[in-house]
């Protein structure tokens, strides 16, 4: 590590969670009401523990979102709106800032290129989001580093101590000309990591991110990894997720020890017009004092909550209904971005 900045783990103290409210000009238009219900549930759950910062496209959307949240008895003292922000869609895990923490405190907001997951979707406004937010008095004691390299926040996991976890399938898809060694070196430089652990297996039907790590395997405190497992040999995912589990078992901590592994249960297939949706319990969000868990109305929801309680014994596990989100191929972690403690500017 070349200077005092570091990439904090998600379980470290936070200022807030950053989201963008869905509206009729995003891809949610066809099922906007159901998705809004999920956003209300998310904000209601998160504000029990910490503030939520909500980007809105215009004043009318803010008025509407406020009304929805007030009717749900959300603590509005923990809600801050950022008005007149342009965005193509609401997947802020991938278009929002990746924040490094420094001394002082001082923060470095990394602004990687966002290409709509390799050009699959329009993303020109989303690619400008970090720069736009940096001019709206949302953050303080920070600077932005723009990096001409396609990388989404959902593609990387850190343990906060210099180890990065990712999938080679995703990064190779974004940068087919680059070697694994070259990508590892660049990620270590930009994200201030000592090493990158790569997974070569793992995927979910209905996922268009090319195997983002946050749908598959996540770090937890004390050298643990929580991962999406599949226990149904008849399921199309079985062989691939079993191979991923074997890869995880072969990984070693910095001290050369195996990671403590926590397999998450496999929900029953959720179909939409014959299309299978990517229902992953690994797409949880860690906040101060809690883990917000995607719930799908499946019997496995309760089992997943019990697994997360083992991996995060000092946090409350709070289910958030996310069946509406997987219609657009993402889930709870995908629509959020945590802001480390001290980054959020005080209200003037």
From TrEMBL:
Any Pfam family hit: PAD_porph
Keyword tRNA processing recorded: no
SUPFAM superfamilies hit by this protein: Pentein
GO biological process: putrescine biosynthetic process
This protein's UniProt keywords: Hydrolase
GO function term, MF aspect, one: protein-arginine deiminase activity
Presence of keyword Plastid: no
Protein name: Agmatine/peptidylarginine deiminase
Naturally occurring in which organism (per UniProt): Pseudoxanthomonas wuyuanensis
Taxonomic placement: Bacteria, Pseudomonadati, Pseudomonadota, Gammaproteobacteria, Lysobacterales
